């Protein structure tokens, strides 16, 4: 299968000082879908890699750090999450983590059906939960999907791409208002919110309206080597429960990144980011 | 000054899945010294960049995250550090941070005098402390330098390159025994100890002997976008004081990364690293 060695470089723009490159041994697939271009590479250092529109979406080697951390903080703060929605996340990684909890129903709303089919084909260890009977898949625009779901979800995870292209609407105020409406009384949304080093302006912009919509909004982060700057974070948007005061142990074993101490420390920001985001 | 745009790629080996690239606008200097090759680049995204033997040593944009975090944890745990030694660190970044504390004397022992002269020339905001009257510079091998300094230093910082070439000896047991001997009764050494994602084996190897030498050994980390995987850490090796129980506020203002909460959270490791390093 090894065709040749090639460097694949993550998308770079002037805002981002550095860019990640990965040494690939071959391209496994390239598909132009209705929404974007998906490429799958084989690499020795990172396992298989998915790129969307030239941006590294995930690698087999470090996806656990992202998927565990988008999922488990909210799922450990909500006392009994039964109805959970994932917007985006067609690779199935967040769904896999949600299914480690005692949930009744997981809805996955992914705009691009090809992301799901490609993930099932090339990333079975990530997409493994998508065939679970508790999971229902919708191919739809997440921003429209939640409009008629008032008070339905205990937890919503927004596992989106960057705020360009199809995901742009997921970084806007109307979408956060709709999520607030779609959540139950104790509801929590955790949303992919970029990194403190290269996208602090995006986070500040998000917080300028999310803090008007949700009583509790806190940024927390994880470390993912193949994402720009090596770190990416999430907005923890909660209607009532507090991420540090209301966590309960759920007895989940076998995680590689998340633990009870990381839960708290992930909300502690370097001084420059703390100052920029403080209320 | 802008010559052309060129991608400069950090050194890559098979152990490391990904590599950092930086877009440079020109090379400012290249010097082959007795020990290594130093290159200085101008970049728009990261400011000036120093590479040594093809590895990014520092960039103006994120050096604060490294230099504050190699320095301030030990300096906040020791109640009154007066005599401080930096081994390596010829750029002066650690010295600059040390001088924010009420110290009597800082010794800098850098094996390569050219690192110091180049830093003074191209990185004045980093090397600014090297001319302070409290600082004494030695051009010497750090492993030999500390052999006749019994009980002299309150804090030792080892700001070294990776464990290949001149810095290899700084990752070995005899050097840690010599440091233990060179420290005062309450002494603390913080040593550059690579990152949990790509160098966990190096950290495990270090801990296999440092924990026999020092009563307290804990790993802590910082996030530096232009280092491989975006994170790098330090061994906190202490003869008596504990990093979490013995910290005191020192009233230092104007830091960009370090704060009292980061001090504690930096010692909290993702589960895979915690398990690998637990006693």
Distance between the termini of chain A: 53 Å
What letter string, H or E per element, gives the SSE order of chain A?
A: EEEEEHEHEHHEHEHEHEEHH
Strand residue content of chain A: 25-35%
Regarding quaternary structure, what we see is homodimer
- Alpha-beta classification of chain A: alpha/beta
Low-confidence blocks of residues of chain A: none
Count interface residues per chain for the largest interface. A-B, 47 and 47 residues
Number of distinct beta strands of chain A? 12
What is the CA-based Rg of chain A, rounded?
18 Å
Backbone shape of chain A: globular
Number of discrete helical segments of chain A? 9
Largest sheet, spatial ordering of strands of chain A: 8-7-6-9-10-12-11
Main sheet overview of chain A: 7 strands, mixed
Tell me about this structure.
- The structure is a homodimer of 279-residue chains.
- In chain A, helix 6 (173-182) crosses helix 7.
- Chain A has helices at 63-77, 93-98, 113-122, 124-127, 142-145, 173-182, 200-213, 260-265, 271-277; strands spanning 6-9, 18-32, 37-43, 47-52, 55-59, 83-88, 105-110, 135-139, 153-159, 183-192, 216-223, 231-238.
- The first copy, chain A, is of the alpha/beta class and 279 residues long.
- The first copy, chain A, is globular.
- In chain A, the strands form two sheets. A seven-stranded mixed sheet of chain A has the order 8-7-6-9-10-12-11, sandwiched between helices.
- Chain A has nine helices and twelve strands.
